[in-house]
Amino acid sequence: MGLPKKPLFMKQKLMRRVMISLVPIIIVSIYFFGLRALVLLIWVTAIGILAEWFFERQYHKPISEAVIVTCMLYTLTLPPGTPFWIAAVGIIFGIVFGKEVFGGFGKNIFNPALVGRCFVYVSFPEPLTIHWVKPAAGFPGGFALWLTEPIDAISQSTPMLIFRETGQMESWIKLFIGNIPGSLGETSALVIILSAIYLIYTKSASWQTMLAVLAGYFAMSTSLFLMGAPPIPSPILGCLSGGLLFGTVFMATDPISSPVTMEGKWIYGVLIGIVTVIIRGYALFAGGIMFAILIGNTFSPLIDETVKLYKNSRKKVAL
C-alpha cells in the first residue's frame, strides 16, 4: 500500500471564520465598485496560493489557509482600478518577504497583507493614490458593471485626501454606509462593524486589541482636535474614514504578528492608535493605519517580553 496522500491545504478553523467575516465586505465592494473587484480578488488569491506553494513544496508542507485570508485582506486594501500586474507584484512581495523569509506560517513578524500593500503603495504611488472611481448607487449597482466611473479631480477623491487638500470631510452618513471613493473593502464602516461583531462573538479576533487601537486613536485625535491642530479631522469622522476600522478589525488583530499577552495587546493597540493619528496629520501619507500596524508589529515581541519580565519581577517581589 502507498503512503497516504498529503492534503494540499492546512485546515485552519480560525482562518475560515475570518474568511466568512470578509464575505459581506467583498459583496459590498462589488456593489459599490463593480465586478472587477471580484476578478481582482480571484487573480490575487491564485497568485498568492502559487507563491506560497512554491516555497512550501520544498519542505513537503501543505499550503496554509491563512494565505487565502492574506490575499483577501490585501485585495480589499487596494483601489478598485489597481492594475492586475501591480496587484500580483504586491501579493508575491508580501508572502515572500512578509512571511516565507521568516520560515512560513506562524513565524512571520509582520502582517504579510500589509507588507504587500505597503510595498505597492510606495513603489507605485500614482495608481495607488490618485486613480479612484465613483461608488455605484441604486440597483443593481456595480453588479452590472465591470468598473464604475473614474475620478480625476481631488475634490472628488477619497475622504482623507479631500480633507488634507481642502479641510473638508464627507458626511458621517456616507462614511458609515460606504458610498464614497476609496479602497475596495475600507469604505463601509457599517459592514466592517458587523464583521467585527461576528469575529468577537466567535472568538476569532481580540476585542481587547480592537478597543485599544480605538482608545489610542480617540485619545490622541481628540487631544489634538481640541487644541485646534489644523491637520486633524473630527475624531468621529476620522474614525469612519481612511481604513482605520478595517485595519483595526482585520490587520491589528492578526494573531501571529500581534502580542499574545493581555497587557501586551492593550499596549500594542494604543500604540497603533496614537501613531495612526500622527502619521495621518503630519506625514506625507493620507492614511496612517497601514504604517502604524507595521510599526506595532515591529515592537510586538518586545512588548510581550517586557510584560513577561515585569510579571516575573512582581512575582519575585511578592515572594
List keywords for this structure.
globular, two-stranded parallel sheet, FMN, translocase, 319 residues, Ammonium transporter fold, transport, mainly alpha
CATH topology: Ammonium transporter fold
CATH top-level class: Mainly Alpha
Radius of gyration (Å): 20 Å
Total discrete domains:
1
Task: Summarize the main sheet.
Answer: 2 strands, parallel
The percent of residues in helical segments reads 55-70%
Strand content: under 5%
Number of helices: 14
Order of neighbouring strands in the sheet with most strands: 1-2
**Quick one: how many beta strands?**
4
CA distance, first residue to last residue:
60 Å
The CATH architecture assignment turns out to be Orthogonal Bundle
Outline the structure in words.
The chain is about 60% helix and about 5% strand. It has a two-stranded parallel sheet with strand order 1-2. A two-stranded antiparallel sheet has the order 3-4. The protein is globular, with a radius of gyration of 20 Å. Helix 1 packs parallel to helix 3, helix 5 runs antiparallel to helix 14 and helix 10 runs parallel beside helix 13. It has a single domain, classed as Ammonium transporter fold.
Describe the secondary-structure layout.
Elements: E1 9-10, H1 13-33, H2 36-56, E2 63-64, H3 66-76, H4 84-98, H5 112-123, H6 125-129, E3 132-133, E4 150-151, H7 159-166, H8 172-177, H9 189-201, H10 207-226, H11 235-239, H12 244-251, H13 262-282, H14 289-318
Parallel strand pairs: 1-2
Antiparallel strand pairs: 3-4
Helix pairs in contact: 1-3, 1-9, 2-3, 2-4, 3-5, 4-5, 5-14, 9-12, 10-13, 13-14
